[in-house]
Amino acid sequence: MTVRTCLIVDDSRIIRKVARRIVEGLGFEVDEAADGAEALIYCNSLLPDVVLLDWNMPVMDGLTFIRRLRELPGGLAPKVLFCTIETQPERIAEALAAGADEYVMKPFDGEILQAKLAEVGAI
């Protein structure tokens, strides 16, 4: 069986911890990054199958990260789920236009995350 990998990108250690527990429970190997710049360095050496991405972070925000990720060789492959408190339809449209595969509202739980991952074909 192939090991599926997930990169959790969020400046909140608590959010990363909660998301890690959920995603590991779904059989993923998990790595974490505290901002988009850290995540981009990670993706330059190893592309994960799935990225759970926060929008508002210091150093590099989620929108900038996803645009740069999609420009990398193979950067279209990871499924990217924006996990954020942004609720404005135009912001959601902006995230999807930038290359996000799906959108998850914070706070989320295991059921919601599992459903969204299934929707994008990650599980």
Automatic annotation (TrEMBL):
GO BP terms: namely:
phosphorelay signal transduction system
Domain Response regulatory: residue ranges: 5-121
Q: Name one Pfam family in it.
A: Response_reg
Residues annotated with 4-aspartylphosphate modification: 54
Asked if the record carries the keyword Phosphoprotein, the reply is yes
Q: So which domain of life are we looking at?
A: Bacteria
Q: Does the keyword Phosphoprotein apply?
A: yes
UniProt entry keywords in alphabetical sequence: Phosphoprotein
Alphabetized PANTHER family for the sequence:
TWO-COMPONENT RESPONSE REGULATOR, TWO-COMPONENT RESPONSE REGULATOR ARR22
Q: What is this protein called?
A: Two-component system chemotaxis response regulator CheY
